[in-house]
Amino acid sequence: MLEYKKENCSSCGLCEKVCPFGAIKIQEGFPYIDDNCTECGICAEKCPANAFCVEQKETGKQQTEEYRGFWVVGLEKEGEPLNKVTLELLSTARKLADQKKEKVTLLIKGLQEREDWKREAQKTGCDKILLIASEYSGYDAKLYTDAIECAIRRFKPEAVLFPATVNGRDLAPRVSGRVGTGLTADCTGLSLDENGHLLQVRPTYGGSIMASILTPKHRPQMASVRPNVMEIQWTDEKREVKVEYLEDFSSVAEDRVKLIGCIEKNNAFADLAEANIVIAGGYGLKNKENFGKLFKLCDRLNAAAAATRKAVDEGWAPAEIQVGQTGTTIAPDLYIAFGISGALQHTLGMKNAKKIIAVNHDPAAPIFDICDVAVLGDAGEVLEECCNILENKKA
Ligand SMILES: Cc1cc2nc3c(=O)[nH]c(=O)nc-3n(C[C@H](O)[C@H](O)[C@H](O)COP(=O)(O)OP(=O)(O)OC[C@H]3O[C@@H](n4cnc5c(N)ncnc54)[C@H](O)[C@@H]3O)c2cc1C
Ligand code: SF4
Ligand code: SF4
Asked: Where are the alpha helices (DSSP H) in the chain?
Protein backbone atom coordinates (compact mmCIF):
# COMPACT_ATOMS: atom_id res chain seq x y z
CA MET A 1 0.00 0.00 0.00
CA LEU A 2 1.24 3.50 -0.84
CA GLU A 3 1.02 5.83 2.12
CA TYR A 4 1.44 9.61 1.71
CA LYS A 5 2.46 11.79 4.66
CA LYS A 6 1.45 15.32 3.81
CA GLU A 7 3.24 16.69 6.90
CA ASN A 8 6.62 15.63 5.40
CA CYS A 9 5.94 16.96 1.89
CA SER A 10 7.92 20.01 0.76
CA SER A 11 5.83 20.44 -2.43
CA CYS A 12 8.90 20.03 -4.64
CA GLY A 13 6.84 18.33 -7.38
CA LEU A 14 9.46 15.67 -8.16
CA CYS A 15 7.11 12.72 -7.62
CA GLU A 16 4.85 13.84 -10.51
CA LYS A 17 7.87 13.66 -12.83
CA VAL A 18 9.23 10.30 -11.69
CA CYS A 19 6.03 8.28 -11.55
CA PRO A 20 6.26 6.01 -14.65
CA PHE A 21 2.52 5.38 -14.64
CA GLY A 22 1.41 9.02 -14.62
CA ALA A 23 -0.42 8.33 -11.36
CA ILE A 24 0.61 11.55 -9.60
CA LYS A 25 -0.73 15.02 -10.33
CA ILE A 26 0.37 17.98 -8.24
CA GLN A 27 -2.74 19.85 -7.24
CA GLU A 28 -2.54 22.99 -5.15
CA GLY A 29 1.07 22.16 -4.36
CA PHE A 30 0.51 18.61 -3.15
CA PRO A 31 0.53 15.26 -4.91
CA TYR A 32 -2.77 13.65 -5.73
CA ILE A 33 -2.51 9.91 -6.48
CA ASP A 34 -5.02 8.32 -8.82
CA ASP A 35 -6.03 4.73 -9.67
CA ASN A 36 -3.13 4.24 -12.10
CA CYS A 37 -0.82 3.72 -9.13
CA THR A 38 0.73 0.23 -9.22
CA GLU A 39 2.53 0.68 -5.90
CA CYS A 40 5.87 0.32 -7.66
CA GLY A 41 7.49 2.45 -4.96
CA ILE A 42 9.50 4.70 -7.26
CA CYS A 43 8.04 7.90 -5.78
CA ALA A 44 8.94 6.68 -2.30
CA GLU A 45 12.48 5.97 -3.45
CA LYS A 46 12.93 9.37 -5.10
CA CYS A 47 11.03 11.69 -2.73
CA PRO A 48 13.66 13.81 -0.92
CA ALA A 49 11.32 14.40 2.04
CA ASN A 50 10.33 10.79 2.75
CA ALA A 51 6.71 11.69 2.19
CA PHE A 52 5.83 8.32 0.67
CA CYS A 53 6.02 4.85 2.09
CA VAL A 54 5.10 1.62 0.31
CA GLU A 55 4.18 -1.32 2.46
CA GLN A 56 4.44 -4.74 0.87
CA LYS A 57 0.94 -6.14 0.74
CA GLU A 58 0.36 -9.62 2.08
CA THR A 59 -0.77 -11.17 -1.17
CA GLY A 60 -3.73 -13.23 -0.07
CA LYS A 61 -6.14 -15.45 -1.94
CA GLN A 62 -8.34 -12.49 -2.85
CA GLN A 63 -5.58 -10.86 -4.85
CA THR A 64 -4.15 -13.90 -6.58
CA GLU A 65 -7.62 -14.58 -7.97
CA GLU A 66 -7.54 -11.32 -9.92
CA TYR A 67 -4.86 -12.89 -12.13
CA ARG A 68 -6.12 -14.89 -15.10
CA GLY A 69 -4.66 -16.58 -18.14
CA PHE A 70 -1.44 -18.31 -19.11
CA TRP A 71 1.24 -16.41 -21.00
CA VAL A 72 4.20 -17.51 -23.04
CA VAL A 73 7.07 -15.15 -23.82
CA GLY A 74 8.49 -15.68 -27.33
CA LEU A 75 12.04 -14.48 -27.96
CA GLU A 76 12.18 -14.97 -31.71
CA LYS A 77 14.61 -12.96 -33.79
CA GLU A 78 13.27 -10.60 -36.43
CA GLY A 79 12.04 -12.55 -39.46
CA GLU A 80 12.15 -15.97 -37.79
CA PRO A 81 9.22 -18.36 -37.67
CA LEU A 82 8.08 -19.33 -34.17
CA ASN A 83 10.79 -21.34 -32.40
CA LYS A 84 10.21 -24.93 -31.44
CA VAL A 85 10.46 -24.00 -27.75
CA THR A 86 7.77 -21.33 -28.14
CA LEU A 87 5.42 -23.93 -29.64
CA GLU A 88 6.28 -26.34 -26.83
CA LEU A 89 5.46 -23.69 -24.24
CA LEU A 90 2.23 -22.70 -26.00
CA SER A 91 1.14 -26.34 -26.01
CA THR A 92 1.92 -26.64 -22.29
CA ALA A 93 0.14 -23.39 -21.51
CA ARG A 94 -2.93 -24.62 -23.44
CA LYS A 95 -3.04 -27.83 -21.42
CA LEU A 96 -2.84 -25.89 -18.14
CA ALA A 97 -5.28 -23.20 -19.25
CA ASP A 98 -7.87 -25.81 -20.31
CA GLN A 99 -7.95 -27.16 -16.77
CA LYS A 100 -8.96 -23.71 -15.51
CA LYS A 101 -10.96 -22.63 -18.57
CA GLU A 102 -8.58 -19.75 -19.17
CA LYS A 103 -6.92 -18.17 -22.17
CA VAL A 104 -3.42 -18.52 -23.62
CA THR A 105 -1.49 -15.46 -24.80
CA LEU A 106 1.79 -15.26 -26.68
CA LEU A 107 3.78 -12.13 -25.85
CA ILE A 108 6.31 -11.49 -28.57
CA LYS A 109 8.16 -8.59 -30.15
CA GLY A 110 7.08 -7.55 -33.61
CA LEU A 111 5.97 -4.52 -35.54
CA GLN A 112 3.33 -6.20 -37.62
CA GLU A 113 0.98 -9.18 -37.62
CA ARG A 114 2.58 -12.25 -39.19
CA GLU A 115 0.34 -14.83 -40.77
CA ASP A 116 2.83 -17.68 -40.11
CA TRP A 117 2.99 -16.83 -36.39
CA LYS A 118 -0.80 -16.67 -36.22
CA ARG A 119 -1.17 -19.99 -38.04
CA GLU A 120 1.35 -21.84 -35.88
CA ALA A 121 0.08 -20.29 -32.65
CA GLN A 122 -3.47 -21.22 -33.58
CA LYS A 123 -2.45 -24.84 -34.11
CA THR A 124 -1.28 -25.00 -30.48
CA GLY A 125 -4.55 -23.48 -29.21
CA CYS A 126 -3.28 -19.97 -28.51
CA ASP A 127 -6.02 -17.32 -28.08
CA LYS A 128 -4.11 -14.10 -28.43
CA ILE A 129 -0.82 -12.65 -29.65
CA LEU A 130 0.29 -9.53 -27.82
CA LEU A 131 2.90 -7.78 -29.93
CA ILE A 132 5.54 -5.67 -28.25
CA ALA A 133 5.74 -2.86 -30.76
CA SER A 134 9.40 -2.00 -31.20
CA GLU A 135 11.61 -1.07 -34.12
CA TYR A 136 14.64 -2.73 -32.56
CA SER A 137 15.22 -6.11 -34.20
CA GLY A 138 17.49 -7.96 -31.74
CA TYR A 139 17.27 -9.05 -28.11
CA ASP A 140 17.33 -6.07 -25.78
CA ALA A 141 16.98 -7.07 -22.14
CA LYS A 142 15.81 -3.67 -20.96
CA LEU A 143 13.22 -3.24 -23.68
CA TYR A 144 11.77 -6.71 -23.05
CA THR A 145 11.81 -6.22 -19.28
CA ASP A 146 10.05 -2.84 -19.50
CA ALA A 147 7.47 -4.18 -21.92
CA ILE A 148 6.71 -7.39 -20.05
CA GLU A 149 6.51 -5.60 -16.71
CA CYS A 150 4.07 -3.15 -18.19
CA ALA A 151 1.99 -5.91 -19.81
CA ILE A 152 1.84 -7.88 -16.56
CA ARG A 153 0.68 -4.85 -14.60
CA ARG A 154 -1.96 -4.04 -17.21
CA PHE A 155 -3.36 -7.50 -17.91
CA LYS A 156 -2.51 -9.50 -14.77
CA PRO A 157 -1.76 -12.99 -16.10
CA GLU A 158 -1.86 -15.93 -13.72
CA ALA A 159 1.33 -17.51 -15.04
CA VAL A 160 4.12 -16.48 -17.39
CA LEU A 161 6.36 -19.07 -19.06
CA PHE A 162 9.76 -18.19 -20.51
CA PRO A 163 12.03 -20.36 -22.66
CA ALA A 164 15.09 -21.41 -20.62
CA THR A 165 17.37 -20.35 -23.48
CA VAL A 166 20.34 -18.02 -23.02
CA ASN A 167 18.18 -14.91 -23.51
CA GLY A 168 15.22 -16.38 -21.62
CA ARG A 169 17.45 -17.11 -18.64
CA ASP A 170 18.66 -13.53 -18.74
CA LEU A 171 15.19 -12.03 -19.05
CA ALA A 172 13.00 -14.06 -16.68
CA PRO A 173 14.74 -13.07 -13.41
CA ARG A 174 14.75 -9.39 -14.46
CA VAL A 175 10.99 -9.50 -14.94
CA SER A 176 10.31 -11.45 -11.76
CA GLY A 177 12.43 -8.94 -9.82
CA ARG A 178 10.50 -6.03 -11.30
CA VAL A 179 7.06 -7.41 -10.52
CA GLY A 180 8.06 -8.90 -7.18
CA THR A 181 7.17 -12.52 -7.73
CA GLY A 182 9.01 -15.84 -7.65
CA LEU A 183 10.63 -17.60 -10.58
CA THR A 184 11.44 -21.26 -10.99
CA ALA A 185 14.23 -21.54 -13.53
CA ASP A 186 14.88 -24.46 -15.86
CA CYS A 187 11.69 -26.40 -15.18
CA THR A 188 11.35 -29.85 -16.66
CA GLY A 189 7.70 -30.32 -15.72
CA LEU A 190 4.63 -28.13 -15.14
CA SER A 191 1.19 -29.10 -13.85
CA LEU A 192 -1.50 -27.74 -11.51
CA ASP A 193 -1.88 -28.85 -7.90
CA GLU A 194 -5.24 -29.51 -6.21
CA ASN A 195 -5.63 -25.76 -5.48
CA GLY A 196 -4.94 -24.76 -9.07
CA HIS A 197 -1.45 -23.43 -8.31
CA LEU A 198 1.33 -24.04 -10.82
CA LEU A 199 3.45 -26.98 -9.72
CA GLN A 200 6.93 -26.33 -11.09
CA VAL A 201 9.32 -29.28 -11.20
CA ARG A 202 13.05 -28.87 -11.74
CA PRO A 203 16.21 -30.88 -11.11
CA THR A 204 18.22 -29.68 -8.15
CA TYR A 205 21.46 -30.55 -6.31
CA GLY A 206 23.20 -31.26 -9.61
CA GLY A 207 20.26 -33.29 -10.88
CA SER A 208 20.24 -35.76 -7.98
CA ILE A 209 16.68 -34.86 -6.89
CA MET A 210 13.63 -33.31 -8.53
CA ALA A 211 12.16 -30.38 -6.57
CA SER A 212 8.46 -29.37 -6.82
CA ILE A 213 8.02 -25.64 -6.30
CA LEU A 214 4.85 -23.58 -5.74
CA THR A 215 4.26 -19.82 -5.74
CA PRO A 216 1.04 -19.77 -3.72
CA LYS A 217 0.94 -16.13 -2.60
CA HIS A 218 2.33 -14.11 -5.47
CA ARG A 219 1.26 -13.56 -9.03
CA PRO A 220 2.08 -14.12 -11.75
CA GLN A 221 3.63 -17.52 -11.20
CA MET A 222 6.76 -17.59 -13.35
CA ALA A 223 8.78 -20.43 -14.75
CA SER A 224 11.41 -20.87 -17.40
CA VAL A 225 11.27 -24.17 -19.23
CA ARG A 226 14.05 -25.98 -21.03
CA PRO A 227 13.66 -26.44 -24.76
CA ASN A 228 12.78 -29.94 -25.97
CA VAL A 229 11.36 -31.02 -22.62
CA MET A 230 7.67 -30.39 -23.34
CA GLU A 231 5.92 -31.81 -26.38
CA ILE A 232 4.39 -29.74 -29.13
CA GLN A 233 0.72 -30.67 -29.31
CA TRP A 234 -1.28 -29.50 -32.28
CA THR A 235 -5.02 -29.03 -31.85
CA ASP A 236 -7.75 -29.21 -34.50
CA GLU A 237 -9.86 -26.63 -32.70
CA LYS A 238 -10.40 -23.58 -34.89
CA ARG A 239 -9.77 -20.75 -32.44
CA GLU A 240 -9.54 -17.23 -33.64
CA VAL A 241 -6.16 -15.78 -32.64
CA LYS A 242 -6.59 -12.12 -31.74
CA VAL A 243 -3.60 -9.85 -32.32
CA GLU A 244 -3.09 -6.77 -30.15
CA TYR A 245 -0.24 -4.32 -29.79
CA LEU A 246 1.38 -3.45 -26.51
CA GLU A 247 2.24 0.21 -26.83
CA ASP A 248 3.33 2.98 -24.49
CA PHE A 249 5.28 0.79 -22.14
CA SER A 250 7.24 3.24 -20.10
CA SER A 251 10.68 2.61 -18.80
CA VAL A 252 11.02 2.50 -15.04
CA ALA A 253 14.72 1.71 -14.86
CA GLU A 254 17.90 3.36 -15.94
CA ASP A 255 19.51 1.92 -19.04
CA ARG A 256 22.79 0.57 -17.70
CA VAL A 257 23.75 -1.58 -20.68
CA LYS A 258 24.84 -0.27 -24.03
CA LEU A 259 24.67 -2.68 -26.95
CA ILE A 260 27.77 -2.07 -29.04
CA GLY A 261 27.19 -4.74 -31.66
CA CYS A 262 26.32 -8.37 -32.29
CA ILE A 263 28.68 -11.10 -33.47
CA GLU A 264 27.09 -14.07 -35.21
CA LYS A 265 28.24 -17.39 -33.75
CA ASN A 266 30.05 -20.03 -35.77
CA ASN A 267 27.49 -22.65 -36.96
CA ALA A 268 28.92 -25.19 -34.53
CA PHE A 269 27.77 -23.06 -31.59
CA ALA A 270 24.42 -22.02 -32.97
CA ASP A 271 21.32 -22.70 -30.90
CA LEU A 272 21.81 -26.31 -29.81
CA ALA A 273 18.25 -26.75 -28.60
CA GLU A 274 16.78 -25.77 -31.97
CA ALA A 275 19.33 -27.60 -34.20
CA ASN A 276 18.21 -30.28 -36.67
CA ILE A 277 21.60 -31.99 -36.74
CA VAL A 278 23.78 -32.37 -33.64
CA ILE A 279 27.27 -33.90 -33.64
CA ALA A 280 28.49 -34.79 -30.16
CA GLY A 281 31.79 -35.89 -28.72
CA GLY A 282 32.63 -37.77 -25.54
CA TYR A 283 35.61 -39.00 -23.58
CA GLY A 284 36.38 -41.48 -26.37
CA LEU A 285 37.48 -38.59 -28.60
CA LYS A 286 40.54 -38.41 -26.34
CA ASN A 287 41.68 -34.79 -26.77
CA LYS A 288 40.93 -31.16 -27.54
CA GLU A 289 42.39 -31.44 -31.03
CA ASN A 290 39.74 -33.96 -32.01
CA PHE A 291 37.07 -31.63 -30.64
CA GLY A 292 38.49 -28.90 -32.89
CA LYS A 293 37.89 -31.26 -35.84
CA LEU A 294 34.38 -31.99 -34.60
CA PHE A 295 33.57 -28.25 -34.45
CA LYS A 296 34.88 -27.82 -38.01
CA LEU A 297 32.74 -30.71 -39.21
CA CYS A 298 29.70 -29.13 -37.55
CA ASP A 299 30.39 -25.81 -39.22
CA ARG A 300 30.63 -27.50 -42.63
CA LEU A 301 27.43 -29.50 -42.14
CA ASN A 302 25.44 -26.69 -40.55
CA ALA A 303 25.15 -28.83 -37.44
CA ALA A 304 25.41 -27.85 -33.78
CA ALA A 305 28.18 -29.30 -31.64
CA ALA A 306 27.51 -31.07 -28.33
CA ALA A 307 29.56 -32.82 -25.68
CA THR A 308 29.23 -35.04 -22.64
CA ARG A 309 29.94 -33.74 -19.17
CA LYS A 310 33.14 -35.76 -19.04
CA ALA A 311 34.45 -34.03 -22.16
CA VAL A 312 33.44 -30.65 -20.73
CA ASP A 313 35.15 -31.46 -17.43
CA GLU A 314 38.32 -32.29 -19.37
CA GLY A 315 38.19 -28.78 -20.89
CA TRP A 316 37.82 -30.10 -24.44
CA ALA A 317 34.46 -28.39 -25.03
CA PRO A 318 32.64 -25.39 -23.49
CA ALA A 319 30.01 -26.09 -20.81
CA GLU A 320 27.28 -24.40 -22.86
CA ILE A 321 27.23 -27.34 -25.28
CA GLN A 322 26.86 -30.05 -22.63
CA VAL A 323 23.87 -32.25 -23.32
CA GLY A 324 22.11 -34.20 -20.61
CA GLN A 325 20.42 -34.02 -17.27
CA THR A 326 22.47 -31.02 -16.15
CA GLY A 327 23.01 -29.64 -19.62
CA THR A 328 20.75 -28.92 -22.57
CA THR A 329 17.93 -31.20 -23.66
CA ILE A 330 17.76 -31.68 -27.41
CA ALA A 331 15.52 -33.39 -29.95
CA PRO A 332 17.25 -33.07 -33.34
CA ASP A 333 16.42 -35.04 -36.47
CA LEU A 334 19.92 -36.55 -36.42
CA TYR A 335 22.33 -37.06 -33.50
CA ILE A 336 25.83 -38.39 -34.16
CA ALA A 337 27.83 -39.52 -31.10
CA PHE A 338 31.61 -39.94 -31.27
CA GLY A 339 33.12 -41.86 -28.34
CA ILE A 340 30.15 -41.55 -26.00
CA SER A 341 29.25 -44.43 -23.67
CA GLY A 342 25.53 -43.59 -23.33
CA ALA A 343 25.32 -42.97 -19.57
CA LEU A 344 21.77 -42.30 -18.34
CA GLN A 345 22.56 -38.69 -17.40
CA HIS A 346 23.64 -38.04 -20.97
CA THR A 347 20.91 -39.97 -22.79
CA LEU A 348 18.24 -38.14 -20.73
CA GLY A 349 19.17 -35.09 -22.76
CA MET A 350 19.20 -36.64 -26.26
CA LYS A 351 16.97 -39.70 -26.25
CA ASN A 352 14.29 -37.84 -28.22
CA ALA A 353 16.54 -37.48 -31.26
CA LYS A 354 14.78 -39.00 -34.29
CA LYS A 355 17.89 -40.82 -35.62
CA ILE A 356 20.99 -41.70 -33.63
CA ILE A 357 24.32 -42.75 -35.12
CA ALA A 358 26.94 -43.86 -32.57
CA VAL A 359 30.66 -44.47 -33.09
CA ASN A 360 32.34 -46.49 -30.35
CA HIS A 361 35.07 -49.13 -30.20
CA ASP A 362 33.31 -51.14 -27.50
CA PRO A 363 30.53 -53.40 -28.86
CA ALA A 364 29.00 -53.48 -25.35
CA ALA A 365 28.70 -49.66 -25.07
CA PRO A 366 25.16 -48.81 -23.82
CA ILE A 367 24.76 -46.15 -26.54
CA PHE A 368 24.51 -49.01 -29.06
CA ASP A 369 21.27 -50.11 -27.32
CA ILE A 370 19.51 -46.90 -28.25
CA CYS A 371 21.08 -46.01 -31.60
CA ASP A 372 19.74 -46.61 -35.12
CA VAL A 373 23.17 -47.03 -36.72
CA ALA A 374 26.16 -48.45 -34.79
CA VAL A 375 29.66 -47.84 -36.10
CA LEU A 376 32.25 -50.05 -34.40
CA GLY A 377 35.60 -48.33 -34.61
CA ASP A 378 37.96 -45.68 -33.35
CA ALA A 379 36.06 -42.41 -32.84
CA GLY A 380 39.04 -40.19 -33.75
CA GLU A 381 39.72 -42.12 -36.95
CA VAL A 382 36.07 -42.14 -38.08
CA LEU A 383 35.84 -38.41 -37.39
CA GLU A 384 39.03 -37.78 -39.38
CA GLU A 385 37.65 -39.84 -42.28
CA CYS A 386 34.37 -37.83 -42.27
CA CYS A 387 36.37 -34.59 -42.38
CA ASN A 388 38.51 -35.91 -45.28
CA ILE A 389 35.47 -36.98 -47.30
CA LEU A 390 33.96 -33.51 -46.91
CA GLU A 391 37.27 -31.86 -47.73
CA ASN A 392 37.59 -33.94 -50.93
CA LYS A 393 34.02 -33.11 -51.90
CA LYS A 394 34.82 -29.42 -51.53
CA ALA A 395 37.89 -29.83 -53.72
C1 LIG B 1 24.28 -35.79 -11.10
C2 LIG B 1 24.94 -36.06 -12.39
C3 LIG B 1 24.60 -35.32 -13.50
C4 LIG B 1 25.22 -35.58 -14.74
N5 LIG B 1 24.85 -34.84 -15.82
C6 LIG B 1 25.40 -35.14 -17.02
C7 LIG B 1 25.00 -34.45 -18.19
O8 LIG B 1 24.17 -33.53 -18.16
N9 LIG B 1 25.55 -34.80 -19.37
C10 LIG B 1 26.48 -35.80 -19.47
O11 LIG B 1 26.94 -36.07 -20.58
N12 LIG B 1 26.88 -36.45 -18.38
C13 LIG B 1 26.38 -36.15 -17.16
N14 LIG B 1 26.82 -36.81 -16.06
C15 LIG B 1 27.97 -37.74 -16.23
C16 LIG B 1 27.54 -39.09 -16.76
O17 LIG B 1 27.17 -39.90 -15.67
C18 LIG B 1 28.72 -39.76 -17.49
O19 LIG B 1 29.84 -39.82 -16.66
C20 LIG B 1 29.13 -39.05 -18.78
O21 LIG B 1 28.00 -38.82 -19.59
C22 LIG B 1 30.11 -39.96 -19.55
O23 LIG B 1 30.64 -39.27 -20.62
P24 LIG B 1 31.34 -40.05 -21.83
O25 LIG B 1 30.34 -40.96 -22.47
O26 LIG B 1 31.99 -39.02 -22.67
O27 LIG B 1 32.52 -40.86 -21.12
P28 LIG B 1 32.65 -42.38 -20.76
O29 LIG B 1 31.51 -42.86 -19.99
O30 LIG B 1 34.01 -42.54 -20.18
O31 LIG B 1 32.58 -43.11 -22.17
C32 LIG B 1 33.57 -43.00 -23.14
C33 LIG B 1 33.13 -43.95 -24.24
O34 LIG B 1 34.03 -43.80 -25.31
C35 LIG B 1 34.40 -45.10 -25.77
N36 LIG B 1 35.73 -44.98 -26.31
C37 LIG B 1 36.92 -44.85 -25.65
N38 LIG B 1 37.94 -44.74 -26.52
C39 LIG B 1 37.39 -44.80 -27.75
C40 LIG B 1 37.93 -44.75 -29.06
N41 LIG B 1 39.23 -44.57 -29.28
N42 LIG B 1 37.06 -44.86 -30.09
C43 LIG B 1 35.74 -45.04 -29.91
N44 LIG B 1 35.18 -45.12 -28.69
C45 LIG B 1 36.00 -44.98 -27.63
C46 LIG B 1 34.32 -46.01 -24.58
O47 LIG B 1 34.07 -47.34 -25.01
C48 LIG B 1 33.14 -45.41 -23.84
O49 LIG B 1 31.93 -46.04 -24.23
C50 LIG B 1 26.22 -36.57 -14.84
C51 LIG B 1 26.56 -37.31 -13.70
C52 LIG B 1 25.95 -37.04 -12.51
C53 LIG B 1 26.33 -37.85 -11.30
S1 SF4 C 1 8.52 14.38 -4.18
FE2 SF4 C 1 7.96 14.20 -2.04
S3 SF4 C 1 8.28 16.23 -1.25
FE4 SF4 C 1 8.21 16.44 -3.46
S5 SF4 C 1 6.06 16.87 -3.91
FE6 SF4 C 1 6.31 14.70 -4.06
S7 SF4 C 1 5.78 13.96 -2.05
FE8 SF4 C 1 6.14 16.12 -1.82
S1 SF4 D 1 4.03 4.04 -6.22
FE2 SF4 D 1 4.75 4.08 -8.33
S3 SF4 D 1 2.87 4.16 -9.52
FE4 SF4 D 1 2.30 4.74 -7.45
S5 SF4 D 1 2.42 6.94 -7.43
FE6 SF4 D 1 4.39 6.19 -6.72
S7 SF4 D 1 5.66 6.10 -8.56
FE8 SF4 D 1 3.54 6.29 -9.24
From this structure: 14-18, 42-46, 61-64, 84-100, 115-123, 141-155, 166-179, 288-301, 309-313, 344-347, 367-370, 379-394
